[in-house]
Amino acid sequence: MTELRYSVIQGRCGPVRRPRSRWAYAVPVVALAAGSLFGVSASTSQGSDLRPGTRDLVQVVQAGNRRVADQAAGVKGLQGEVDSLSKKDAPGSGKLASTQQQADGYAASAGLTSVTGQVVSVSLNDSKRDPSTLPDGANLDWLVVHQQDVQAVVNALWAGGATSMMLMDQRVISTSAVRCVGNTLLLQGRVYSPPFVIRAMGDPAKLRQALTDDPAVANYRAYVDAVGLGYDVKTETKATFPAYVGGTDLKFAKVKK
């Protein structure tokens, strides 16, 4: 027989009851919420894994680069078809043919055809120096190649009379933008890591002299001596650059007064 303990509460007699713990109310709520989340996850995944295995960031970037390269090749093929159709004889095409002939004359200087000639190649690379050995007042920014460094070399080579240019494995023209994110280069939808290689076609002596005379390039070379940034200049006696295949529309240009 169960033993009952009695106490007097407001004049009434009855068994003493311990107050219910707050967990008695919280547990059902948590269980209900968890069940709802499981249901949403099952509906969203439709049987697939919502958390696939971790992919290496390098592989993601490489996949993106391959996709952009494939699309660029598709653009080149379509442009060839457009050019071929534009050159076909058709009623009233005399003016079109004349205009096309004029455009063909500008194609080489615009970078829209492949070219062959002598080339000066410049390679810029991050320093491999131990940060703990940096001189007083230096910081980690000194050890990496920046957008301004790549742009300095590009500008110096154009100023030195370059007739055409390659940056990494892409042909660039006067409207190509050089952008860096961290220590990676973003060029026409593709991402590159150092060393950054700029190749310019033209008179090798004039191109080299332009690099020597440019103050921004000279500033970069000062850091080459101070902290070991990479800077290598070579001459190629003969090289071929492919035609530029990117967009040529200007979106933000304006006339400088």
UniProtKB/TrEMBL annotation:
Give GO cellular component annotations, separated by semicolons.
Answer: plasma membrane
**Superkingdom of source:** Bacteria
Question: Where do the record's region annotations for Disordered lie?
Answer: 80-100
Q: Tell me if Transmembrane helix is a UniProt keyword of this record.
A: yes
| Entry keywords, A to Z | Membrane, Transmembrane, Transmembrane helix
Q: Does the keyword Phosphoprotein apply?
A: no
Q: Could you tell me which Pfam families the record lists for this protein?
A: DUF881
For this protein, the parts annotated as crossing the membrane are: 23-42
Return the similarity comment. Belongs to the UPF0749 family.
Please report the name of this protein according to its UniProt entry.
DUF881 domain-containing protein
Which species does this protein come from? Flexivirga aerilata
